[in-house]
Amino acid sequence: MGAGGAGGGGGRAARALRLLLLLVLALAAVEYLFGSILDASPFRTYLYTPAYNTTQSTIKNIERTPGWPKKLSIIAAARKNPKVSNTTQFRNVTFNTTVSTNSSTKAPFIANMTRQNITVESSTPFLITKIMEGIKNLVTTEGLSPRINEPKLPLCEEMPPDLGPITVNKTEIELDDIATKYPEVHRGGRYAPPNCTARHKVAIIVPYRDRQQHLAIFLNHMHPFLMKQQIEYGIFIVEQDGNTDFNRAKLMNVGFMESQKQKAGGWQCFIFHDIDLLPLDQRNLYSCPRQPRHMSASIDKLNFRLPYEEIFGGVSAMTLEQFTKVNGFSNKYWGWGGEDDDMFYRLKKMNYHIARYKMSIARYAMLDHKKSAPNPKRYQLLSQTSKTFQKDGLSTLEYDLVDVVQHHLYTHVIANIDEHS
């Protein structure tokens, strides 16, 4: 009995000694690991994602590699720089480590880690897990785009509901009175339907000069009209700087070029719109046409009749492909008239035909304005269109961009389009 007790006591002592030895070895290992774990280049390859490649978001099968260096980079940096005491100040910490890219070049890593793009598997040692959590707390997520899987909205209906005839208020109003009237519209006159994905992305290009009395009326009418049609759109008022004769067509070329710069991926189609014309029926869809569409076929001041079959002025719609294929508008029409007929000939030359809604839908109200002086060279220029359109248009467009200002209800583009000598 006593011998058994002594033997049991000796076994416990032996086990205690082994546990003590394991504890000492574990403490030594902790010291060794804490001094070197994060400078190991294989480990860092998984732990720190390069700023130019954020697609690899999960850490897998982290291997322990002998010879790990002895300093934890971020903590060491904080100790060397006592002024950095708040850990949220670590926004972009550059490490002196390089990685080979696909082009075999080397670039520094940037520590930009978030909870969304680092995941540790259950097989990862507990110590490594704790260290990684500490590092994630040191690095701020400020300025990073969260990886949120937002549900995609369904496509908007091809024919939005409850469209029909509307009235126009031609009473003059001040622009300041409507500057904040439509909170749904984003800065720059941009709008996208909140409950569905728009089928059409449309830039409304409006050539402009000395029509202050029309601008507020136009914006006050067009925004609710366009929002009802569930399209994504932006309104661009393109103003001609200087004192030369008005050149509507060249301004529309400028509007095309500058509007494309304002949207990632560009716009799908373009509606070139006189500021004194207001649509009277919401079924007149400001969408991307299969064929170039003459929108303003029926105007009140013209007794709602089409003046002639080839007319393409007032309001017209073209896709990006259609507009670029005909080289845009001519740049040579200074003064009133001719540029819309020139576009008709360009489209016909490229085998397009002009589409129109029926006259009861393509109805517009015209605001009163002073007539411009006709262009005396318009007929001469029109006689040469079929021969010269490929050398006169977007390919030869020159202008000086004076300013681009994003107001709440529109983007204001100011350009000097005078011809350089």
Automatic annotation (TrEMBL):
Signal peptide feature range: 1-28
Keywords on record: Glycoprotein, Glycosyltransferase, Manganese, Membrane, Metal-binding, Signal, Signal-anchor, Transferase, Transmembrane, Transmembrane helix
Predominant location category: membrane
Stored InterPro entries: Galactosyl_T, Galactosyl_T_C, Galactosyl_T_N, Nucleotide-diphossugar_trans
UniProt record, GO biological process: carbohydrate metabolic process; glycosphingolipid biosynthetic process
Its EC number(s): 2.4.1.-
Residue ranges occupied by any Galactosyltransferase C-terminal domain in the UniProt entry: 293-370
Stretches of the chain forming a coiled coil according to its record: none
Molecular function via GO: galactosyltransferase activity; metal ion binding; N-acetyl-beta-glucosaminyl-derivative 4-beta-N-acetylgalactosaminyltransferase activity
Gene Ontology cellular component annotations, sorted alphabetically: Golgi apparatus; membrane
Purpose of the protein: Catalyzes the transfer of galactose onto proteins or lipids.
Entries under PANTHER family matching the protein: BETA-1,4-GALACTOSYLTRANSFERASE, BETA-1,4-N-ACETYLGALACTOSAMINYLTRANSFERASE
Annotated protein name in UniProt: Beta-1,4-N-acetylgalactosaminyltransferase
